[in-house]
């Protein structure tokens, strides 16, 4: 699989020092020297930067449309270039990780990369049957002797909220609208006089 095309001379002018270090690791030689853990970390950093510059491009485009009052406004220049740059760097990191995973597993399918926003990734050992799945250690196993119903959970939440209210010395949580209501009634009285 060919690597995504990156113009490194243009990238140097676009990037900050920290961004440039990440882009430099996407070159062929430094990429080959990265460990799998470093590759995964680089994928996460490149994804964050790609998303940041994609969102920045969208915001800038909307702002310029709003100022001009028209949809056909030209998009900003540098932000889309940085978005494409980090997307290409992320593609390079992912393809290298997939290549190494395929090599280490002897040609089997590569392990799926856990995305940073996902909750619990499915952990499967490579080359094993579907029934031999490992469970993530971060998720606690439920105690079979402990049963919590929704009603009990709701009552416990309500009790905790009531305890907080009592602790503050107020009668209820709703108090923000009181002064506004007082101002409205006073305005009505002043209007009558």
Which SSEs are present, and which pair or pack?
Blueprint: H1 8-14, H2 17-24, H3 28-33, H4 36-68, H5 78-104, E1 123-124, E2 133-134, H6 150-168, H7 178-192
Antiparallel strand pairs: 1-2
Helix pairs in contact: 4-5
Structure write-up:
Helix content is 60%, strand content 2%. The protein contains 7 helices and 2 strands. It has helices at 8-14, 17-24, 28-33, 36-68, 78-104, 150-168, 178-192; strands at 123-124, 133-134. Strands 1-2 form a two-stranded antiparallel ribbon. A hairpin with an 8-residue loop joins β1 (123-124) and β2. Mean pLDDT is 76; it is low at 120-136.
Low-confidence stretches: 120-136
Report Rg: 28 Å
Q: What is the number of helices? A: 7
**Amino- and carboxy-terminal Cα gap:** 83 Å
Beta content? under 5%
The share of residues in helices is 55-70%
What is the β-strand count? 2
Order of the strands making up the biggest sheet? 1-2
Biggest sheet record: 2 strands, antiparallel
Compute the average pLDDT: 76
In short:
This protein is mostly helical. Helices cover 60% and strands 2% of the residues. Helix 4 runs antiparallel to helix 5.
Key descriptive features of the protein:
193 residues; mainly alpha; two-stranded antiparallel sheet; 7 helices; 60% helix; flat
């Amino acid at each position: 699989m060919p690597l995504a095309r990156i113009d490194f001379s243009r990238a140097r002018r676009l990037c900050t020092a920290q961004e440039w270090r990440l882009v430099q690791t996407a070159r062929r030689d430094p990429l080959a020297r990265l460990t799998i853990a470093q590759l995964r970390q680089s994928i996460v950093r490149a994804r964050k930067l790609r998303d940041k510059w994609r969102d920045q491009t969208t915001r800038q485009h909307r702002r310029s449309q709003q100022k001009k009052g028209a949809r056909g406004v030209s998009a900003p220049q540098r932000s889309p270039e940085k978005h494409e740059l980090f997307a290409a760097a992320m593609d390079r990191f992912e393809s290298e990780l997939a290549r190494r995973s395929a090599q280490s597993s002897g040609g089997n399918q590569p392990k799926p990369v856990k995305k940073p926003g996902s909750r619990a990734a499915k952990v499967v050992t490579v080359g094993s049957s579907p029934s031999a799945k490992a469970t993530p250690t971060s998720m606690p196993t439920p105690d079979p002797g402990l049963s919590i119903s929704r009603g009990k959970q709701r009552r416990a939440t309500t009790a905790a909220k009531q305890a907080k209210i009592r602790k503050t010395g107020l009668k209820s949580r709703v108090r923000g609208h009181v002064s506004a209501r007082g101002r409205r009634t006073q305005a009505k009285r002043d209007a009558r006089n």
